[in-house]
């Protein structure tokens, strides 16, 4: 271990000391060495902090990916629920004015449209027209497969009110 003599008080001490341990006189070489040692220590500390920060950041990214996946899943489910709700609403409310539920309506149509067919095939046009007008207030009579077919017959028999009005005004 290198030793030097203090130029101020003449004491002998290790050359790496930044100042004389007896009188406090500065030792330029020792001070510079200490500065470099401190600098190296700081650099190592900062590397360590950097590593820890990087690790913490990586963990955060993983957590973020997990919560993003969760969010996507939840949003997806909500969207599906909304779409499902709209489909249900459209089937039960928007398209039809009838009271009661959709299954009841389908059952009603299944029975009633057979009677319409019989009336149409039997030429009971007036009776059929009355039935459709009355049923149409509560039921989806327009779903009857032969509705258009009957309307053409009705036009020929009783005329088209809209067409007749136009003809009269000409
Ligand atoms: Zn000294």
SSE layout and pairing:
Elements: E1 3-5, E2 12-14, H1 28-94, H2 102-121, H3 125-135, H4 147-158, H5 161-169
Antiparallel strand pairs: 1-2
The structure holds zinc ion.
Zinc ion (ZN) is lined by residues 6, 8-9, 11, 20, 22-23, 25.
- Read across the widest sheet, the strand sequence of neighbours is 1-2
Element string (H = helix, E = strand): EEHHHHH
- Pairing-aware structural class of the strands and helices? mainly alpha
Mean pLDDT: 87
Shape: rod-shaped
Structure in words:
The mean pLDDT is 87. This protein has a two-stranded antiparallel ribbon. The radius of gyration is 48 Å and the shape is rod-shaped. 4% of the residues are buried. By secondary structure, it is mainly alpha-helical. The chain has helices spanning 28-94, 102-121, 125-135, 147-158, 161-169, and strands spanning 3-5, 12-14. The protein binds zinc ion (ZN). Zinc ion binds at residues 6, 8-9, 11, 20, 22-23, 25. The site of zinc ion (ZN) has 8 residues, from loops.
Descriptive keywords:
mainly alpha, 2 strands, 170 residues, two-stranded antiparallel ribbon
């Amino acid at each position: 271990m290198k030793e030097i003599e203090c130029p101020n008080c003449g004491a002998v001490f290790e050359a790496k000391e930044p100042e004389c341990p007896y009188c406090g006189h500065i030792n330029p070489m020792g001070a510079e060495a200490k500065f470099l040692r401190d600098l190296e220590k700081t650099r190592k500390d900062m590397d360590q902090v950097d590593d820890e920060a990087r690790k913490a950041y990586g963990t955060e990214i993983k957590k973020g990916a997990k919560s993003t996946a969760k969010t996507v899943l939840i949003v997806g489910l909500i969207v599906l629920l909304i779409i499902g709700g709209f489909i249900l609403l459209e089937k039960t409310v928007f398209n039809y004015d009838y009271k009661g539920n959709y299954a009841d309506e389908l059952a009603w149509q299944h029975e009633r449209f057979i009677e319409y067919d019989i009336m149409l095939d039997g030429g009971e046009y007036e009776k059929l027209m009355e039935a459709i007008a009355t049923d149409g207030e509560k039921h989806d009579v327009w779903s009857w497969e032969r509705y258009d077919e009957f309307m053409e017959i009705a036009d020929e028999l009783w005329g088209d009110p809209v067409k007749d009005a136009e003809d009269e005004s000409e």
